[in-house]
């Protein structure tokens, strides 16, 4: 449970998807895959791909400016920027520093969070504390990834991910409601279920690592599936209990978008009607840290949320790491 001294609301949402589209049919022409398999197993029809000169911070900055404007604020009002990403512009400095400069939020502190597909859940849960404790007012939380840059386009698991960024602003809420509760989990024993082996201190970049293609991500898809369908229902049950709510009280789940199979199995285990589980992976695939804020931004734009609606955010991914949050729309 987060000790809430001051209520916190999401005051603005935004998103940015690159223009370029890779359809399943296009992927059939470059890797050994099958469009129907991708749609049936993963729920993906197409995904967006960044241009060669388009960086994670480019997408993140556009999403951020949209969220700030929607919040009725200017970049000067932002006190802190947190970027969740696995595909930073550079290993150093933080992508949040790039964003800070690009959007001109020079009153803000800036740092990154690394929790791969659960990155946005971690960034939200960290960011919200600063507002809840009264330490600062407006926190910009961004989830942004360009996995196309670290994907081996000769392997068939290249079909899983897309590029994109989403952002929210957390602000104080004088009237109550907003954040209710949140929980994070992790199990480092599963750290290699999805990994980028080279480029860090364990295996610095070398001719060999490049030749052996070790700078691209590698995944044990079944390992992820088996853990995901265990931990997601558990953490969602935990936050519902802490919030003294049941599934009947929930309007929507706004989850990470790993695969349609994981989300369906999670809903089935919870006993949740799948129509309450929002998805957009048919158009964007898995944008890793970007999934939840992109989906939320679209949901808000479609006027699907009214004050008093309870929603659940939930994510699972490499680490393994997972988390969930209950939020009452303001
Ligand atoms: C990856 C995943 C879809 C595999 O599902 P599965 O039912 O276990 O599928 P299998 O591995 O048994 O493969 C079933 C068939 O699909 C085929 N297949 C596997 N990957 C494929 C691909 N990319 N394209 C086309 N066919 C593929 C296999 O060759 C196999 O064919 P066969 O039956 O003729 O041998 C599933 O485990 C999953 O959703 N994992 C989660 C992955 C994820 O969410 N990753 C991102 C989050 S970090």
How many β-strand stretches? 13
CATH class bucket of the largest domain: Alpha Beta
> How many domains comprise the coordinates?
2
What's the gyration radius in Å? 19 Å
Head-to-tail CA distance between termini: 20 Å
Mean pLDDT equals 96
CATH architecture of the largest domain: 3-Layer(aba) Sandwich
Pick out the low-confidence regions: none
Q: Could you describe the largest sheet, including whether it forms a barrel?
A: 5 strands, mixed
The backbone outline, from C-alpha atoms, is globular
Topology of this protein?
Blueprint (H helix, E strand, L loop, with lengths): L7 E9 L3 E4 H7 L4 H8 L3 E4 L6 H15 L9 E5 L10 H9 L5 E5 L5 H14 L6 E8 L16 E10 L5 E9 L7 E2 L11 H5 L6 E2 L1 H22 L7 E6 L4 H11 L10 H4 L6 H11 L8 E8 L3 E8 L2
Parallel strand pairs: 4-5, 4-6, 11-12
Antiparallel strand pairs: 1-7, 2-3, 6-7, 8-13, 9-10, 12-13
Helix pairs in contact: 1-2, 3-4, 7-8
Bound molecules: coenzyme A.
Short structural summary:
By secondary structure, the protein is an alpha/beta fold. It contains 10 helices and 13 strands. The longest helix has 22 residues, at 221-242.
């Amino acid at each position: 449970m987060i000790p809430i001294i001051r209520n916190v609301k999401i005051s603005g949402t935004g998103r940015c998807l690159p223009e370029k589209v890779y359809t399943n049919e296009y992927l059939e022409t470059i890797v050994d895959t099958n469009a129907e398999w991708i749609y049936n197993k993963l729920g993906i029809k197409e995904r967006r791909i960044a241009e060669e000169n388009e960086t994670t911070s480019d997408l993140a900055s556009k999403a951020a400016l949209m969220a700030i404007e929607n919040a009725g604020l200017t970049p000067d009002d932002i006190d802190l920027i947190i970027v969740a990403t696995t595909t930073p512009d550079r290993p150093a400095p933080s992508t949040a520093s790039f964003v800070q400069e690009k959007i001109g939020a020079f009153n803000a502190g800036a740092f990154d969070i690394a929790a791969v597909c659960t990155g946005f859940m971690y960034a939200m849960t960290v960011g919200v504390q600063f507002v809840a404790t009264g330490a600062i007012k407006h926190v910009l939380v961004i989830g942004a990834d360009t996995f196309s840059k670290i994907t081996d386009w000769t392997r068939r698991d290249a079909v899983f991910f897309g590029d994109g960024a989403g952002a929210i602003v957390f602000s104080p809420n004088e009237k109550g409601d907003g954040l209710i509760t949140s929980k994070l989990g992790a199990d480092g024993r599963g750290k290699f279920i999805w990994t980028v082996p080279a480029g860090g201190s364990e295996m610095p970049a070398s001719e060999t690592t490049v030749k052996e293609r070790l700078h691209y991500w590698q995944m044990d898809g079944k390992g992820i599936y088996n853990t995901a369908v265990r931990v997601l229902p558990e953490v969602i049950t935990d936050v519902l209990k802490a919030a003294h709510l049941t599934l009947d009280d929930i309007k929507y789940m706004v989850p990470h978008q790993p695969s349609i199979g994981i989300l369906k199995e999670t809903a089935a285990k919870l006993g949740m009607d799948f129509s309450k589980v929002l998805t957009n992976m048919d158009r964007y695939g898995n944008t890793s840290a970007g999934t939840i804020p992109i989906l939320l931004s679209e949901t808000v734009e479609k006027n699907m949320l009214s004050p008093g609606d309870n929603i659940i955010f939930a994510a699972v991914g490499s680490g393994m790491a997972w988390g969930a949050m209950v939020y009452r729309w303001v």
